[in-house]
Every structure is written in structure tokens, then in C-alpha cells.
Amino acid sequence: MAAQNRQDMGSGPVKPLLLQLMIPAVVAQVVNLLYNIVDRIYIGHIEGIGAAALTGVGLFAPILMLLNAFAMLIGAGGAPRTAIALGQGNKEDAEKIIGNSFTMLLFFAVVLTIGFYAGAPALLRLFGASDATLPYAVAYGRIYILGSVFVLLVMGMNPFITTQGFAKISMLTTVIGAVINIILDPILIFGLGPVPALGIAGAALATGIGQTVTLVLYLVVYCTTASPVRLRRKALRPDASLEGRLYAIGVPAILNLALPSLLVTFLNDLLAAFSESYVVVLGIYYKLQTFLYLPVSGIVQGMRPLISYNYGAKEHARVAKLYQLTLGMSAVIMAAGTVICMAASAPLIGLFSSNPETIAIGQTALRIICLGFVVSAVSTTSSGALEGLGKGAASLVISLCRYVIFIMPLAWLLCRQLGPTGVWHAFWATEVLSAIIAFAVYRRGISKK
Description:
The chain is mainly alpha-helical. It has helices at residues 14-44, 50-59, 61-87, 91-126, 134-146, 148-163, 167-190, 200-224, 240-272, 276-312, 316-343, 345-350, 356-369, 373-388, 392-405, 407-418, 421-447.
């Protein structure tokens, strides 16, 4: 990792620095999204069993989410602490954090691999697998689980590379792994030359190979290049007090991810009482939302390590500038999303459904929900900034407001007053109320220096 590929986190103009960290994050997310789409397309076209195989992979999703959660527990908890330590000039503490994080990821990988491999059939039955789909879910799941050590290490250690200012390296390793996966998918699923057709097992194997290559690249980065901190043997020894500090950020970060799923389940129950079409529209909205929030998520990812580093260095003016710049950029993107949803709501819904009733309901839903897009930038920016400051609990307060405290009661109340349209109104009302709380929580968090 050459020195010229590293961004200086504590000096230079803030805007170019944020862009240098943001753009690679967005590219990596787009490539991963593309991989997931392509992977599902290939699986769906396996002759004779495509539909059942695709359902089986879908049933594995809860286990995959749990694996991702444990990776985030360490990555989201350790990366901000590492950046803060680097900002303070405490290289020894930064290396200790990275070493402990690597050790914890290995421990979780071993425990989860044994537990999930043995319990896969029972867990998949619990998640809804039938006699027809269980064989495919188990075939895919067990191979994927055997490679979970690579998955956890890759996902858990990736934030540490960006934290050290190597956003391009982080992007390249992620993209290389995803591209290898995309290339190997058709070869291993359908067979090519001497390679036999492995079906759904081939899809899982392709993922494992891609993640293994990415992990090898990470280890080369950490062990052989001129990075600010490296993996050292003495830093791998577990430290209980340090692990507690990591969990203080990592646990709220996991809950932040879990809350949207809880909300979707709640809203589906409300909307199903009126018509299945409303449930379909809600699902379409969340698919569209993924593309809209992708660049915003990239900006926040770019901001987070910069805020951590400068907060540790006591450069509070730069921290404030980073927050303001991220907020402004996010608001501009969300404003563009609002205009698009207002002007092209019917065509957007039409991408996913040709049913006239679904398109009509979706058109109304998008035009109402998008009223809260711009103001939502306050919540997303504040939450990300607080995670960067090492204040995970404060970040969780904002997520609770957005996904539980405000929207659930509002949706329940408004749908009884306005029918299913009331659920759509609950979205923008929640964003306004959450933005007020988010800004107040952020100001309080940043004032505690």
C-alpha cells in the first residue's frame, strides 16, 4: 500500500478529503449490490429448480444477517476507536484495538461456523423452509457457513482500512472479491469445460472464493505495507476492558440495522388489513429507497473516519465542518430524490409492477413519503457522526426515534384516521420529528469533549 494512496485524515481541505473517502465507499456498495442481483439471477435460472433454489437462498438470509451483525459488532465498534486513537497520536492503542478486533472476529467465526453448520436444517425449518426448499437452503447454507471465517474477517476488518485513510484500497479489495464472485458464479453453477455443474452449491462456493481472495489482500495490506498501524502478535491478546469499549459502539450499530426490519414487519401487518397491494407497494418503496440512500450512506461512511480522527486530534472546527458538509451534500441528494419521486412516481413503481392498482397506490405513496426525504438528512448525518465520535448509544436514540418511537404510533393512529394513506404520511412526519431530536442529540454529544 503505497504512501501516496493514503489520505491525510487531519490536514488539507475538508471537502476534497471527504470526496476521496466517500466515492470509493459508494463504488464498493454499488458493486456489492450488483453482485447480489447477478447472483440471484444465475440461481433463478438453474434449470428445473431455479425457483425453489432461489427461495432456499432467501431462507438463508436471517443467518446471513446474523453473520453480518457480528462482523459489524467489531468493525463498527473498533474502527472509530482506532481513528480516535490515531488522531490522538496513540499508535500503540490503535494497534491494540485492531489486534483485539481481529482476535474477536476469529473467535466469533469459529463459534458461529460450528453452531450454524450443525443447526442449519433446524434453523432453516424455523425460518420457513419446506420439504421442497430445505435441500437447496441447506446445500447453499452449509457451504457458505464453512467460509464464514472469511466473510466475518473481510466484513469486520474492512472499516479499519478506510479508518487509516486507505479508502481506495478498501474499495479495490471489495470490488476484486465481488468481481471474482460474479465471474465464478456461472462457471461453478452451470459448469464449464472440466468444471462440473455444482448448482446452488456452486453459488456458495463462488462467494467463499471471492471472500478468501479479499481476505488475502487485506492480510497483505496489514502485514507488508507502510500503513500507520499493523497487525502485531502482541496486540492479538484479548483485553476485556477494550472489548467493552468496542461493544459500546458495535451493539448500538447492530440494533440500528435491525430496527428497519422490525418496522417493515409492523407496517406490513397494518397495511395487510386493507389490501395486499399496499404491502407490495411498501416493498417496492424500500427497494427504491436502497438506491436513493446508497450515495448518502457513502457520504456518511466517508465522514465517519474523518470525524473520528479529527475528534481524537481535538480539531473540533474540522469536525464541525465535516458535519455541515456531509449534511449539505446529503440534503442535495435527497432533494434530487424528492424531485424524481414527484415527477416520475408512476414510472418508478412501473419498473416493479404492471398492475394498475399497485401503480396507482404506489404513485400516491411515493409522492407523500418523499416529503420527508430532505429533512431525513439531519438524522442520517447526525447518527453517523455520533458513531464516529464513539457515542453509539446516542446514535441508537436517533434510530429508535425514526424506526420505533415516532413512526409506529403515528402509523397506527393515522391509518385509523386516514386509512392506508395515513401510513405514508407517518413517514414524513416521523422524519421531521426525528430531525429535531437528532440535531439536539448531536449537539449534546459534540459538546461533551
